[in-house]
Amino acid sequence: MTVRGRAFDQLRALKRSARWTLRLAWSTDRPSVGGLVLLTVVTGLLPAGLAVAVRGLINSVEGVATGATGDVAEIWLWLGVGITLALVRVIASFMEGLANRRLHDQIALRVDTRVLEHAAQLDVSFFERTRYRDMLQRARRGTADNIHRFLRHLLRAAKNLTTSLSLFIVLAAIEPLILPLMLIIAFPYMLFQVRQARRAYNLERSRAVKRRWTAYFSGRLTTSPSVAEVKLLGLAPLLLSRFRHLMEEFFDQDWKLHVKGFRAGLLFGVMSTLAVYAVFVRVVLLAIQGQVTIGDVAIFGGAATGLQKAVDALAISLRSAVADTLFVTDLMSFFDHRPRIVARGEAEWPQRRGELRFEDVTFAYPDTSTPVVDGLSLHVRPGETLALVGENGAGKTTLVKLAARLYEPDEGRILVDGVEIRELPPAEYRREIAFVFQPYGRYEASAGENIAYGDWQRLLRDRSAVEEVVQRAGLDSMVESMPDGLDTKLGRSFGEYDPSAGQWQLIAVARALARDATILILDEPSSSLDARAEYELFSRLHRMSAGRTTLLISHRFSTVAMADRIGVISDGRIVEMGTHDELMELGAVYASLYNLHRRGLV
Question: Which of 21, 156, 183, 483 has the most CB atoms around it within 10 Å of its CB?
Fold first, then answer.
């Protein structure tokens, strides 16, 4: 594709983004948008209006001074017009600032909220894929500022276009030669600015991963979970050097781009100045010959300089708008992304007994070809506690996440109480699932809120119910030891009390138990606990989960043995199934793993 073709493609993209942004802004705050459009037109015409008023004033003064006319009233008329236009410019400037401030705040509220709302609807897999994480980062980076800035650049471009056209008309009426000269110089300059905007965007887009690396290095050096280890390992110089290397690379790339822009701007400035003054000389000669008035000469230089500045500002505004167009396109692409996990039917789930069936289920993570779960079939009885064991990477965590419908099987199906879960609304199905995953949540909130989040609509305003959950989970003494009990703010970001890893995990377990759910999923729920605390926890969980279908993943076989049945997973398939005694008698994979565990080798 030619350079000109790419430029026009970018202008078409600008048109699409402008239409989308204007619709968004109009639906967000019509008075501000309408006022800004009106002010754009008015302020765009003001330079030409003032030039005409000055021309009329000078010609009127000259006529009275030379005795060619005695109409002094015309002088006062043009003075009145000039003063009025000057006042309009001052008032419009302040009104424009106020309207922009209001619109920015309204867009910030609307767009930032909409981004988070849309993100909350997307599948878990969206946040695990690198290209989608980059898309989300671009969508979140100054979203409201980008939208508002794009709108301001659009309006500024419209204003500069209005100014340029109106000044063209005024100057062409005096000397038409100005029109072709300025067009020949301005058009290539505008195309260059459009291309420059594309270069800048492509450069920034290519940095998405490196930007995340700089944030990562900064976080390792400044956040509490990692500072201690970084100090002990003496990693600060290494991390700093890598951070500095990336930032210096960004600087060099940006500097080259700025130099290109400087050269083009300088060339346009020189060429347009020479063109303006060449035409100005011609106007002076015409004035000597009496073909134009003194007023024409007086305003031509100022108006031509104003035109030159307006064209330059138009090119810069166009470049800025095109650059922001590309960020707006990212946001549009983010909003266009739809979740795959949706209700595919209108089935009802009346029984809620918790019977689960996996029928020839196969699943591979996006962008990979090897299935993590491969043709797996499994039956979990209602109210049964089923433990899943296997080596790391066997597919245990993926299996329970499929059961929670955080992922969608590529093949096969999963049924709950005889109903395929894809036929149920995801939100309704997930309300019947309580869980503790390996990366359990550590919410910056009070201890009570951390537990109440398990069923926040019911528990956030029912302290006695939260206290009952704490008592059932056996966390009374732990909560009482905190500075303010259930009201203790947890975490270091907003509070002063940071529980140990084991305490955080016990809180996550209590949060799961707070939900009156049909299915309970426990993925390494005691990894941060010592052996005694783990045994007490599982004894308590065994009693509290009575009647619930429980899927348990653990590498500690002392607790796995408490399950009703145990399934052994290898290469994404169930290879053994039975009670602890049955599997030990079988003497195969489970027995081997159990014996290794007892000898402390796993």
Answer: 21
Place of tokens 């968004």: 24
| Of 336, 358, 382, the domain-final residue | 336
Q: Which residues, 6+ apart, have CB-to-CB distance to 424 below 8 Å? A: 343, 345, 347, 349, 416
DSSP letters of 420-471? Answer: EGGGS-HHHHHTTEEEE-SS----SSBHHHHHHGGGHHHHTT-HHHHHHHHH
Is there a domain that residue 460 lies in? yes
Same domain assignment for residues 221 and 93: yes
Domain count, the chain: 2
Q: Which of 414, 422, 410 is nearest to 365 (CA)?
A: 410
Domain shared by 164 and 310, yes or no: yes
For residues 95 and 103, what is the distance between their CA atoms, to the nearest angstrom? 12
Query: Phi first, then psi: what are they for 379, rounded to 5°?
Result: -120, 125
Q: Please report whether residue 525 resides in a domain.
A: no
> Do the domain assignments include residue 386?
no
Residue 8, pLDDT score: 65
Is residue 275 within 8 Å of residue 281, measured between CB atoms? no
Helix or strand or coil: residue 356? strand
- Residue 206 Cα distances to 10, 141, 150, angstroms: 18, 15, 21
Cβ neighbours for 360, distance < 8 A, ≥ 6 positions apart? 375, 376, 377, 411, 412, 413
- The C-alpha atoms of residue 448 and residue 106 are separated, in whole angstroms, by 34
What pLDDT, in 10s, does the model give residues 550-573? 999 887 777 788 889 999 999 899
Task: Report yes or no on 571 lying in a domain.
Answer: no
369: DSSP letter? -
Domain residue limits at 469 = 442-516
Flag residues of the chain having pLDDT under 70: 1-11, 68-70, 130, 134, 137-143, 224-225, 599-602
Choosing from 304, 336, 368, the residue where a domain stops is: 336
SS (H, E, C) 137-202: HHHHCCHHHHHHHHHHHHHHHHHHHHHHHHHHHHHHHHCCCHHHHHHHHHHHHHHHHHHHHHHHHH
Residues 64 and 188 in one domain: yes
CA distance 575 to 588: 10
Query: What does the DSSP assignment read for 293-334?
Result: -HHHHHHHHHHHHHHHHHHHHHHHHHHHHHHHHHHHHHHHHH
CATH number at residue 286: 1.20.1560.10
- Classify residue 238 by its DSSP letter: H
One domain, residues 95 and 242: yes
pLDDT in tens, 255-295: 988 898 888 888 887 887 787 778 778 878 887 877 878 88
Residue 584, pLDDT score: 92
Question: By three-state DSSP, how is residue 582 classified?
Answer: helix
CA distance 516 to 513: 7
Model pTM above 0.90? no
CA dist 556 and 529 (Å) reads 11
